[in-house]
């Protein structure tokens, strides 16, 4: 299926419950390029060497340690990357990027307690960053935590029915439960209160797609892309919906945009059943099977 997971219930400023950021099965969103801009382009050596040169000048430069960690991670030196992110946080405990990246490292090892701790710090330090948006979108949620989230946000709405955050987070919890009708209702309420909530548009699109309302999903994915045209996951999910509508040319174009922004979507698309209808199309074949 397409990469259309909802954000786990999390107050947008202080709470997040998250999954492995590099899953082996398709997840809603693979990590964006913001912290690994050179490495994401395949320029791992330049990224690594640049960071090392910066550290020769100032061994306590936290951002240089963070960037060196990114380059090492991209080349498969996971232990080295983790050490660099830990050092970055020793030099600057409020470096949100290092918290985010160290959370990814722990999550990849299955150590979710430590990953969640660092991701919460990343959200506290910079709740509006693109990485914070990624963090909120991971679908890890234990049942007892999900029950508690539903109860908490339902209670919040009893106190204030116009609490956009509570509607948003309750929508996430209901979507995790598979209660898409309820999730859609609360995402729409969140958008009634805050029409420019990017994450609510994104999750509403996901829920609508899950219900088979492809036109509705496309409307909200288009809204997201109008604000953030470099959102690779939105391009990919838009391609999925277009493929299901059998609009082959548009689907191929949207998929090409996603792959250009993040080449890892090429591999994801190869196994995605949403593209079955266009799998034999030459344009699709060239996109996903020809490197």
Question: Can you characterise this structure?
Answer:
By secondary structure, the protein is an all-alpha fold. The protein is 66% helix and 0% strand. It has 16 helices and no strands. α4 packs antiparallel against α5, α5 runs antiparallel to α6 (112-125) and α13 runs antiparallel to α14 (248-261). It is flat and about 55 Å long.
Give the arrangement of secondary structure elements.
Elements: H1 37-40, H2 44-57, H3 62-74, H4 78-91, H5 96-108, H6 112-125, H7 130-136, H8 143-159, H9 164-176, H10 180-193, H11 198-210, H12 214-227, H13 232-244, H14 248-261, H15 264-270, H16 282-289
Helix pairs in contact: 2-3, 3-4, 4-5, 5-6, 8-9, 9-10, 10-11, 11-12, 12-13, 13-14
Short key terms for the protein model shown above:
mainly alpha, single chain, 291 residues
Class derived from helix and strand content: mainly alpha
Strand content: under 5%
| Shape verdict | flat
Series of H and E elements: HHHHHHHHHHHHHHHH
Multimerization status: single chain
- By DSSP (H or I, 4+ residues per run), the number of helices equals 16
Which runs of at least 5 residues are low in confidence (pLDDT < 50)? 1-41
Short description:
It contains 16 helices and no strands. The chain is an all-alpha fold. Helix 5 packs antiparallel against helix 6, helix 10 runs antiparallel to helix 11 and helix 11 packs antiparallel against helix 12.
